[in-house]
From TrEMBL:
PANTHER family: NUCLEOTIDE KINASE (PTHR23359)
Binding site for ATP: G10, A11, G12, K13, G14, T15, R127, T136, Y137, L199
Catalytic activity: AMP + ATP = 2 ADP
Residues bound to AMP: T31, R36, L57, L58, V59, G85, F86, P87, R88, Q92, R160, R171
Pathway where this protein functions: Purine metabolism; AMP biosynthesis via salvage pathway; AMP from ADP: step 1/1
Cell location: Cytoplasm
Gene that specifies this protein: adk
Organism: Candidatus Eisenbergiella merdipullorum
Function in brief: Catalyzes the reversible transfer of the terminal phosphate group between ATP and AMP. Plays an important role in cellular energy homeostasis and in adenine nucleotide metabolism.
Protein name, per record: Adenylate kinase
Chain ranges of the Adenylate kinase active site lid domain: 127-162
Length: 213
């Protein structure tokens, strides 16, 4: 099963993607996580991506697509995957489609986690991330057991640079201009399913599992 997560930054698609991946035994592939790992390891790719990420802009398609196609060609993706944060532009979606159709495959579901803009900025300022293992929390809705410390690996939690209010506004603008058109794109293909992302996390997940079966 090949699943794509759509939704504004901070809509909770990453959290849902991880839960789906676990329940259905699929790899969770987050292009943002891959970029952050590269930044942490000081790679050339990381240096290039950081320039864009810190401004709330998208990393250029060429770079992102190459990275994603390499990842989904790996063995653990044979039975499908959950893509979290890819595609984010129509050209990215088109390349993915073309690559899949070469293998007689397609995206099975595009799950849109729907949250109005008004809710987004508040959500993002409460978000905390572990830069070591990629786990994400929210100071109110998904707090870690011990304040400021990752439950999974014990590292310190931070407010990501790109979750700061001034960057969030930019990310929302970029989302509306470049990513939201994907909702129509997948609707036309008959694979779009929307869930109400303002509900508690467990209820959003229950709605998703009703869709995926
Ligand atoms: P995320 O963790 O998915 O919110 O991604 C964080 C940042 O990484 C985004 O704001 C972009 O700068 C970059 N990024 C992640 N995925 C993509 C993508 N598919 N295309 C372009 N940039 C991306």
């Amino acid at each position: 099963m090949k699943i794509i997560m759509l939704g504004a930054p901070g809509a909770g698609k990453g959290t849902q993607a991880k839960m789906i991946a676990e329940k259905y035994g699929l790899p969770h592939i987050s292009t943002g996580d891959i970029f952050r790992a590269n930044i942490k390891n000081g790679t050339e790719l990381g240096k290039e991506a950081k320039e864009y990420m810190d401004k709330g802009l998208l990393v250029p398609d060429e770079l992102t697509v190459r990275l994603l196609l390499d990842r989904v060609a790996q063995d653990d993706c044979k039975n499908g995957y959950v893509l979290d944060g890819f595609p984010r532009t129509i050209p990215q979606a088109e390349v993915l489609d073309q690559e899949l159709s070469k293998m007689g495959e397609k995206v099975d579901y595009a799950i849109n986690v729907d949250v109005p803009d008004e809710n987004i900025v508040n959500r993002m300022s409460g978000r905390r991330a572990c830069l070591n293992c990629g786990a994400t929390y929210h100071i109110v809705s998904i707090p870690p057991k011990k304040e400021g410390i990752c439950d999974v690996c014990g590292s310190e939690l931070v407010l990501r640079d790109d979750d700061r209010p001034e960057t969030v506004q930019n990310r929302l603008k970029v989302y509306h201009e470049q990513t939201q058109p994907l909702i129509d794109f997948y609707e036309k293909k008959g694979v779009l399913r929307s869930v109400d992302g303002t509900l508690p996390m467990e209820e959003v997940f229950a709605a998703i599992t009703r869709i995926l079966g």
